[in-house]
Amino acid sequence: MNDKGIELSFGWIFSLIVGGAILFLAIYAVSQLTDEERRVQQTFTAQELVTRLSMLTTSLESTIRPGNLSFSTQTRITPNCTLGGQFGTQKINVASRSGIGAPWNDNGIPAKSSGLYFFSATPSEGKSFSMLVKPILLPFKVGDSVTLWSGVSCFVQPTAEIQEDIALLEGSGNKVMIANRVQDCARNSTVVCFAVAGNIPAAKSACSIIVDVTKKTVEKHGRTVSYIDPLVYAAIFGDNELYECNVQRIMRRASFLAGLYTEKSAFVASRSQEGCSSALQTELAEYRSIAKNGTSRSLGLLLEKALELDENNPEACPLWKEELR
Amino acid sequence: MITSLERRGQLKVQEMAFVLIALMVFFALAAILYITIRGSLLEQSARDQSDEQALEAVRQIASTPEFTWSECKGCIDLDKVFLLKQQIARDASLQGLWDYDYIAVESVYPARVGGECTPATYPACNRTTVLLSQESYGVAASAFVTICRWDAQEQTVCDLGKLYLSDKGRERASS
């Protein structure tokens, strides 16, 4: 017989096992509830973010609008774009930094919008983000591009228009510095070189992103995308795939609107006593066919057609009033 | 034969079991209470957010390129809205253009009669239902807007109107 062993009564064993089980269940329940609470919070944040961004895009402003987005904790914004449906969908997920366990909490339910064109890195992380909202006029308003970024960037020899846009960010936490030489850029910044007629202002290897303002292309991570002026920041700061997907959504929207304006042209002409004509119909049909299944490569061609349409938009009874130039 | 010591032991085990069961029941009740309160708060805040969203959506839809009259902020181009209605009537796939069940524009002032706008009655009518994907669309959010169109003499005619919108998500959140 072993006299040195600890003798536990049935009561002790029972209470240890059941007490342990209760404690385990309580800890599990609390952790689940905390996770759920965070998920709910992040879902609300994503929804609120999309609502606020949509509010920025609903004005008739035809100029660029700067903005700043700040969160109380480190936040990860993950945009996603799908082409399903008529105009495709923009989805945005928000996750906050976690103090325990995994570095980031799980994403909440994504917020969706069919009228938002949001561009950023996937994901974009930070506490404070810079933002630029630019109207997309082709030649009528198709929507607004919302571009968001968090890191510091250095624009080397940008065009005068871009310098003017960046100057607008001064009051709202500007994270873009302008330099004449790559050497003047901050060490941890993303160097964006602007090339005119193929002349890059620095060694190609020193530039993280190369913007060719003559060819209207942006070269980034070994891939080149085309842009038009309202989408230049989207092409610079946006993820390549996200950019391409959203450009296709913009094209679809432009094509649909061209169809609507074609009908409006015939409708106004049929009721007019003062001679409003439906002369734009052929051009609108050509515009539609370019935009229908267009990609970023068709943007230049679409812009040409848009300029033609803008010139021929009748002054007496214009189909749209937006000024492209 | 059961001794008094064994009987006392059994009683103690039973007491402990009862206390544990009572404890479990207490925790279960507390959890149910918490979940109920939390659920109702969550539902309320979801409803509040969806109401806010619905109002924002009305403002937003008035400013979408398909609706907007580009000469003034928040104004609606009635010609475009009417043509959009006809397009949607021709092509059912266009019903999914926006995630709403119901979108309509009504002329409020000056008072007009004529009911729903059709190709035969336009513009002598007072209501254009752009989208009606379900018969029961619930309570529609609304906002006053200015509705404009070209008249036959190429002049802009603007009325005070109301834009109605019922959101699928909102209905789900309210139900």
Account of the protein in words:
- The complex is a heterodimer of chains A (325) and B (175).
- Chain A has helices at residues 10-56, 160-168, 232-237, 240-271, 281-292, 299-312, and strands at 65-82, 89-96, 111-113, 117-119, 124-137, 141-149, 153-156, 176-179, 190-195, 209-212, 217-220, 223-226.
- By secondary structure, chain A is an alpha/beta fold.
- The radius of gyration of chain A is 27 Å and the shape is globular.
- The N and C termini of chain A lie far apart (101 Å).
- The model of chain A has no long low-confidence stretch (mean pLDDT 85).
- Chain B has helices at 4-62, 78-90, 168-174, and strands spanning 75-77, 100-109, 127-132, 141-150, 156-167.
- Chain B has a 5-stranded mixed beta sheet with strand order 1-4-5-2-3.
- In chain B, helix 1 packs antiparallel against helix 3 (168-174).
- Chains A and B meet through helix 1, strand 6 and helix 4 of A and helix 1 and helix 2 of B.
Provide key terms for this protein.
heterodimer; A: 325 residues; alpha/beta; 6-stranded mixed sheet; 6 helices; 37% helix; globular; B: 175 residues; alpha+beta; 5-stranded mixed sheet; 3 helices; 5 strands; disordered C terminus
Please describe the topology of this protein.
The complex is a heterodimer of chains A (325) and B (175).
Chain A: H1 10-56, E1 65-82, E2 89-96, E3 111-113, E4 117-119, E5 124-137, E6 141-149, E7 153-156, H2 160-168, E8 176-179, E9 190-195, E10 209-212, E11 217-220, E12 223-226, H3 232-237, H4 240-271, H5 281-292, H6 299-312
Helix pairs in contact in A: 4-5, 5-6
Chain B: H1 4-62, E1 75-77, H2 78-90, E2 100-109, E3 127-132, E4 141-150, E5 156-167, H3 168-174
Helix pairs in contact in B: 1-3
| Total beta strands of chain A | 12
Strand content of chain B: 15-25%
Low-pLDDT segments, ≥5 res of chain A: none
Task: Calculate Rg of chain B over CA atoms.
Answer: 30 Å
Taking strands numbered 1, 2, ... along the chain, how are they ordered across the largest sheet of chain A?
3-2-1-5-6-4
- The separation of the N and C termini of chain A measures 101 Å
The residue ranges of chain B in which pLDDT falls below 50 over 5 or more consecutive positions are: 170-175
Beta content of chain A comes to 15-25%
Question: Which structural class matches the secondary elements of chain B?
Answer: alpha+beta
Helix content of chain B: 40-55%
Helix count from the secondary structure assignment of chain A: 6
Q: What string, H for helix and E for strand, traces the elements of chain B in order?
A: HEHEEEEH
Q: Which class do the helix and strand fractions of chain A yield?
A: alpha/beta
Number of E strands of chain B: 5
Give the averaged pLDDT of chain A, no decimals.
85
User: What is the rounded distance between the termini of chain B?
Assistant: 64 Å
| Sheet with most strands: strand arrangement of chain B | 1-4-5-2-3
Radius of gyration of chain A: 27 Å
